[in-house]
Design brief:
Shape: elongated
Order of helices and strands: HHHHHEHEEEE
Number of helices: 6
Helix content: 55-70%
Radius of gyration: 25 Å
Number of strands: 5
Number of domains: 2
Distance between the termini: 26 Å
Oligomer: single chain
Length: 221
Amino acid sequence: MTRTQISAWIMLVFCGLWSGGILIFAVERTNLWRRMPLEQYAVDFRRSLFRADPMMPILGLTAGAVATFFALNRSGAATVFAWAGIGFIVLVVVASVTIAEPNNSKFRRLPEGQMPERAEHYRTLWRRFHAARNLAALAALACLAAAAVASDGGRRDLGFKAVVPSSAQTVCLLKNPRYFERDSHGAFFLTSALLAVQPPSSKMPSIGIVKYPDRACGTNA
C-alpha cells in the first residue's frame, strides 16, 4: 500500500470521526439544550465543552493535514474534491475559533452553575451556528469521500490494480469487455473474475499482465 493510499484511508477516518462528533451534537445535545432550564443548560453545556473542545480540533486538523498531502499527490477530479473538502474543514475551524469560542469562553470562565449575562441569547446563537457548522462538516466528509473514489484515482488510492494492456492484449480485452472497466487514461481495471500478475520486466508497479484463469485467449496474454 502506497503513502497516497494510506493517506486516503486516514483522511476518511479522521474526517468521519470529526464530522460525526459534530453531527451528534447537532442531533442530540442541541435538541436537549433547547428545552433545558438555563441553570441546567449552563452546567451541561460547560461539561460537554470540557470533553469535546480538545478533541474536535485535533480530529479536524489531522483530517485537513492528511487531506492536503492526498491532494498534492493526486490530479484531476480527486484533487478538486480533496481541496473542496479541505476548504470546508478550514471554514469550520476558522468559524469555530472566531464565533463559537468567544461564546464558549463566557460559560467556561465562570464557576460551574453560574450563567453569564444574556445566557439565553448565547444559547440561541450557539445552536444556530452549530447547525450551519454541521452542514459544512458533512460537506467536507462528502468531498473527501468523493475524492477517494473519484474516477480511476479512487480505485488506485484504495488499492485496486490498474492494467494497461499491450497491443496484443487489446485483442483479448475487446473479446471479453465485460471483465474490464476502462478509465480516461486508457487503463483497464480488472473485475474479480480475472487475475493481474506483475511482469518481471515491468518498471511501473501499477502495470500488470492480464491472465485468464478459466479460459483461453488468442495470445495467452
